[in-house]
Amino acid sequence: MFGWRKRVERKGPRILITGGLSFIFSHVTEYFVRKGWNVVVIDNLSKGSNPEIIDGSFVHLNAHMANLDVVDAIVAEKPDYIIHAAAITDVDYSIREPRRTLEKNTRGTIHAFEAARHLPHLKKIMYVSTDEIYGECDHPMREDEMLAPRSPYSCSKAAGSLMRITYENTYPILKGRTVEIRPCNIFGPRQEPEKILARIKLSLKTGDPIPLHNEGAGYREYLYVKDIAPVVDLVLHEGEGVYNVGTRDGFTVRELIEKAEHVTGKKVPTTPSHRSGMDMRYQTDNTRICGLGWKPLYTFDEGLREYLSSVE
């Protein structure tokens, strides 16, 4: 089951990243490799993985976090840090396949925390959640406000948020050793084609129309993917508890399309569409993460221009 590779031991700490070949966390994998850390990635090479970054600079274990034997595999690695990011993240897929989404994501998170509680020298485990666990928002949500997930995907992530609290409270070995981030919508290189900005980029290249769910009125906050690795590093070293990760740069889908058209000078054709149960607005309060001294490297406009540079 596991794809073992010859190890090149480095002087830095050992970090294990689940889902470390995914759109977002492939960038985090490369970041810690560049820092000189010993990086171990658990990724089952499912849809959205980026195996092209496997180059011998880190260890890749080809395994699914929903399988129980990953617990022993993680413990055997003796990591100093764990980032649990592996998950089914496609909301539309989760609506079509709720049982599989809930089962796989929940079991994967259980296994990550089960491994963590058997690692006496673990410094920190990070659970990667999402701003979608707050549900429909009428104001910027703080980390201590009620969770009200409204899709199978966000429900599975909210369950993980509760698991983190439970494991830290129940097992003294994890006291003060768990953290959680709740990022807003991330965009950038390697993004899955079904995500909105990836769809916009493809439409700009091909001229094919994109579906405009609920008249394009859905409002989301956005962050460029190259800003994620530094904030992950900061929270692993300085963080305690939960952090919303966003810049309050929020737009409707119609506004995103207008911005992309302005950057590229091209039009994005659309077709009317309806998404059942769609939350119309997510927004979060980023006071806590800014209090750690975090400042994004890119504004939204800078990230968008870099991302769309190949279609201008």
TrEMBL record:
Origin organism lineage: Bacteria, Candidatus Kaiseribacteriota
Domain NAD-dependent epimerase/dehydratase as annotated: residue spans: 15-246
InterPro entries given in the database record: Epimerase_deHydtase, NAD(P)-bd_dom_sf
Similarity field: Belongs to the NAD(P)-dependent epimerase/dehydratase family.
Name this polypeptide is given: NAD-dependent epimerase/dehydratase domain-containing protein
Organism from which the protein derives: Candidatus Kaiserbacteria bacterium RIFCSPHIGHO2_01_FULL_53_29
